[in-house]
């Protein structure tokens, strides 16, 4: 699988888990839906999403997770295009649901991208200690 060869840039290794670990989590927890980010037939990135209906029941939480662009393709607009496409997918499948994601402290590039798309820090930490951002619908 081409996505398994994706690697982040130098200094980004602590911001995201390897794709192999993400896919392993998705196999164990079928709520997670892995997504390859492609330019034509070439895989340039990866993400996962999942709707956790039991979180904050009865509302649930829709999580976007593990968005990454391979180091060789960073700086070319793939992150913006991928996030725009993922948001279109999620709002189509889960209308009127706020979208949550988390960011490691110091990952200012990702946080800046998410802010461009309307995400804001909400003061929460996720189970891994990452700062939570939300895009309200």
From TrEMBL:
Pfam families: Acetyltransf_1. Residues 1-137 form the N-acetyltransferase domain. This is Diamine N-acetyltransferase. Gene3D superfamilies: 3.40.630.30, The crystal structure of the spermine/spermidine acetyltransferase from enterococcus faecali (1.10.287.900). It comes from [Clostridium] symbiosum ATCC 14940. SUPFAM superfamilies: Acyl-CoA N-acyltransferases (Nat) (SSF55729). It comes from the Bacteria.
